[in-house]
Write a structure and sequence with these properties.
With about 90 residues, the protein is α+β, with helices and mostly antiparallel strands. It contains two helices and three strands, in the order βββαα. It has helices at about 45-65, 65-90; strands at about 10-15, 20-25, 30-35.
């Protein structure tokens, strides 16, 4: 992971066409602006994680809609719940 220090109104450029600008800093919150081409998806990580989880669920169910796949799905959802609860406890 690359770690950089930026101040308000300073920017980073990624791949010549994505510009990330620090808009403001207020205590422990940083407001970030992202300018990227429309064809590039920009998502908050928690939303990206939720989409990936839904895709995994759909894959499990479509690969084998028999009762055995539900056991696999239950295991996956239990692991995800435990991971989310552990993350909440950290904060």
């Amino acid at each position: 992971m690359l770690v950089l220090t930026r101040r308000t109104d300073e920017s980073l450029v990624i791949n010549n066409d994505i510009v990330i600008t620090i808009l403001s800093i207020d205590g422990d919150k940083v407001k970030v602006g992202i300018a990227a081409p429309r064809e590039i998806s920009v998502l908050r990580k928690e939303l990206w994680d939720a989409i990936n989880d839904q895709n995994k669920i759909a894959e499990i169910l479509s690969s084998n809609p028999e009762p055995a796949s539900f056991d696999e799905l239950r295991k996956f959802l239990t692991e995800e719940t435990e991971t989310a609860e552990a993350e909440i406890e950290k904060t």
